[in-house]
Amino acid sequence: MTKEDRDRAQARLDKATRATQDARSGKADRDAASKAVLDNMAKLKALRLAREAAAPPVPVKAKKAAAKSKKPDEKGPAPALSDWLASQQSGGRRT
Q1: Are the C-beta atoms of 52 and 62 separated by less than 8 Å?
Q2: Are 89 and 95 spatial neighbours (Cβ–Cβ below 8 Å)?
Q3: Which of 11, 24, 37, 83 could form a disulfide with 79 if both were Cys (CB 3.0 to 4.6 A apart)?
Q4: Domain limits of the chain?
């Protein structure tokens, strides 16, 4: 094995070592970022729960049954699909 071959092999090993270290540090960065997000979410949830506990309960109003009445602009039930398609074709539309 020549010196040039040994240098190439050492360069490959160094490159692989660097890649492994970069992957580890990248994972650590991602883990730290996700932990920060989860911690922030937990803090916000605790604040929300404390605010809701401190506020007096809101009284629930009973819903009145609205009388169903037809609006003046309603024409009645919609026509059957086949009737509607026939009117569209006779009107010159391609359906």
Answers
A1: no
A2: yes
A3: 83
A4: 1-55
CA distance 93 to 85: 9
- Alpha-carbon distance of 8 to 12, in angstroms, equals 6
At which residue do the structure tokens 């074709």 appear? 89
Cα 47 to the center of its chain, rounded Å: 23
In tens digits, the chain (95 residues) has pLDDT values of 788 998 999 999 888 888 888 777 788 888 899 999 999 999 999 999 999 999 887 777 877 655 555 565 667 788 898 888 888 888 877 75
Does the predicted TM-score (pTM) go above 0.70?
A: no
Q: For residue 56, give the DSSP letter.
A: P
